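ingest -> validate -> predict -> emit
validate: passed (alphabet ok, no gaps, 180 aa)
predict: started
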Amino acid sequence: MSVRSRLRGRRRLLTAAGSCLAIGLAVSGLLVLREPGDRDSRLAVAVNDVSGRATACLAADTATATGSGAVAAVWAAMQTAGRQHDTSVQQMITPVTGAEQAAPYLAGLVTQRCDMIVTVGTPFGQAGPTLASAVPSLRITAVDSALAGAPAGMILLNGPDAAAQVAEQVGALRPRVAAR
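emit:
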């Protein structure tokens, strides 16, 4: 390699580095010199769920999840409906033994922005009425909950058709409208 071609390569590299430095300084200068009021005019960024899709959440206790096929059937139906209707689905299976232990977990699903909560089994099903009265806009469906009657704001499902009915409900969820 000749000395002349080496110098040309170095010259190109130095020119590119100098150009990048000049552009960086110009951008930095613009950021420093802009008006103080410009900062207030920026929009606030909300990062919770940028997809805007509705979310359906499954809540069940570990005893119900391992002891019956209802949790697996409902979860499979929710996943299929979620894929078909562009809805997010998630599940939470946790070792609780009663409604008192299940209630905080259900409240946690509300903070995770679940538009619909499906409970399977007695502990979460029995915790549902308290949440339904506290958050009336939330859709709650209880599968095999051992509740005697459907409290306000809840749908009770039992039997072999429960998974298909949950899938219909997940499919009926609509995307969230962005708050401005």
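The CA atoms of residues 150 and 156 lie 6 Å apart.
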